Amino acid sequence: MTEFDRRRHPVRPDLAAEAYRGRVEAGIFAEGIERRVNADAIPLRPEADERSPIDTEALFGETFTVFEEGDAWCWGQLATDGYVGWLPAGALGIPGPEPTHRVAALRSYRYPQPELKLPPLGLLSMGSRVTVVGEERVRDLDYAVLADGTAMVSRHLMPVGEAEPDWVAVAERFAGTPYLWGGRTSLGLDCSALIQIACQAAGIDAPRDSDMQEDELGSRMNNEKACAMPCRGDLYFWKGHVGVLSDPQTLLHANGFTMTVAYEPLAAVTRRLEEAGLPVTAIRRIA
Known about the structure:
This is Glycoside hydrolase. It contains five helices and 25 strands. By secondary structure, it is mainly β. The strands form eight sheets. A six-stranded antiparallel sheet has the order 20-25-21-22-23-24, with helices on both faces. The two termini are about 35 Å apart.
């Protein structure tokens, strides 16, 4: 039987998505039911256990197709990047109108109504999805009124489909953000999430994990030529790690050395990782 990456394919020995019928053997094939993430952000795990490591995070407003639904946990696939895993059932709700906007600021509060003096209901990170149905101006501040009656500051949102002009500039806005394995928000994220979020903001489809990005994101460069003529936006890969050049000599990366999203001299990072037995494995460039 073909081996499927459990991170990207909803396939288990006992259960698989209906689309895999005839390709795999499974006890049950399920069509899947669409749900919408209603938590600000929620860990997606490889097992239905809060003690299980975090693979990634699902963000408010993202669609999650459920193939197994239980009282406590649901197993399915995140529509944004196809990641498969387990989410708490309470973090999912029935889909309403399709999202019209995404959060373009690093993070922004959601209020019970258009009034910044009210206690906020949540804090949404860049990439979260919301449905705007109206606008209201209160004391010279424009609010977007959402489908559920809540409100957010309008200038922190961008229509779905509208892209940022410079994905590296988006990544640079995360400088100083704490490093969090599996994190995918402006409160904590890992190396590949930094690249994914920034690319998605610019309309560039990017897979979630660094090994996927090394195989699929942009075009692979000849390492010798790329090192001789480095460019802003070049992606440098090591085993289990990725960073982006903010200028020809400086790497921006979420890393476990500084435990932040940090700027470091590329030469220093390369030397440190080589000493740890981790040479550069690839350099890729997004056209």
